[in-house]
């Protein structure tokens, strides 16, 4: 890819829409735009970023293809930093295809996936974290990830990384001065103060790395399993959380067959709920199968909702499930609160003293608000997102941060032990390199390609 190239693509989703926007970017875009466009009055000088009304005309067969609005945007103050023409045509498959074919017939090539954003990156307008945030912004289905993406687009993460790199460069230049002028009286910091600096950098890294706990939840959601013996009301509860009659509710134990996974949006957290349907097969070996399957599904879960039927005495199976839940972040849902209570809450408290309990009636839809509140407290530990907090939501960033921290730990040890400046500076250089992969400052072609290959065409 070179910026000598001019590329074009549909930037709005393909299909039927009020308008479709075709974007042309590169040095030939203005020339092409002027060649295709006709309006009732002669325009000799298109003003920057003004919308003009007219038609796209195919000279090859004297055919008017569509009625459009067109705008010419002069680089470098554009999305790609290049000259851009946008054609707002009717958003139908055929007009869009005809206009694109006409553009391609004039020697313009179709853009690759993510190429507009890649050009913005290569031309220095966005760093990789900002480009990745553009993609998140477009594809996210939850409010929280959108909010994080907006912050990242504004450059918050990029600034933090470049701040840390500046700090590392200071350490490095001090080390290099020591190496280059070992005997001279020069003004360099001693090893212990350099160690201080590295510790400070690691502290900031640690905060970023830790934020991925939250970030992962924001991006991927929380795997939640609903466990309990047959007929305690798991499917009913799932339906209520989903707000619709999705899972099959039945009075016959063991009738919900397949494991269902549904996503609900709880205060901006995607909750991926798995109903361990069919926990109990209709055989005699039931008990074991049930308990084993429950254990398996719990293993995968981030959080567990243990449902008990409070209108029945606590059974052995209940107790086993309660026992297993002790190792996981869980809540105990005391269902069927509308019926007379049969079991002793005291026993539940004894079996699971540290797990929060909430009384609900899935039938009467009571206690659900409280349950949802507890779930979100369980997930985020009652924490809310601070407005200026940087949250790492991208696994690529997380991995690089971890790797950086590893080499800096070694640098810190080296400084502590007064080993040679050479060895420490190798670590520091490596740290700089890896941090630079996050923003793209020192990212190889493979890293860059991987980022942009996830984009769609037209972005
Ligand atoms: P599952 O086998 O654990 O998925 O249980 P279901 O959700 O299929 O429910 C089993 C039976 O219990 C159904 O007849 C439900 O209507 C009933 N049930 C569920 N929740 C409640 C509740 O809170 N109160 C009462 N009275 N019945 C409920
Ligand atoms: Zn069920």
UniProtKB/TrEMBL annotation:
GO terms for cellular component: cytosol. Keywords: Cytoplasm, GTP-binding, Hydrolase, Magnesium, Metal-binding, Nucleotide-binding, Potassium, tRNA processing. Binds 1 potassium ion per subunit. Mg(2+) binds at residues 235, 256. Residues 221-380 form the TrmE-type G domain. Signal peptide: none annotated. One of its GO terms (molecular function) is GTPase activity. It is an enzyme of class 3 (hydrolase). GTP binds at residues 231-236, 250-256, 275-278, 335-338. It is found in: Cytoplasm. GO terms for biological process: tRNA methylation; tRNA wobble uridine modification. Its EC number is 3.6.-.-. (6S)-5-formyl-5,6,7,8-tetrahydrofolate binds at residues 23, 86, 125, 459. K(+) binds at residues 231, 250, 252, 255. Its cofactor is K(+). InterPro entries: G_TrmE, GTP-bd, GTP-bd_TrmE_N, GTPase_MnmE, MnmE_dom2, MnmE_helical, P-loop_NTPase, Small_GTP-bd. Belongs to the TRAFAC class TrmE-Era-EngA-EngB-Septin-like GTPase superfamily. TrmE GTPase family. Exhibits a very high intrinsic GTPase hydrolysis rate. Involved in the addition of a carboxymethylaminomethyl (cmnm) group at the wobble position (U34) of certain tRNAs, forming tRNA-cmnm(5)s(2)U34. PANTHER family: TRNA MODIFICATION GTPASE GTPBP3, TRNA MODIFICATION GTPASE GTPBP3, MITOCHONDRIAL. Homodimer. Heterotetramer of two MnmE and two MnmG subunits. This is tRNA modification GTPase MnmE.
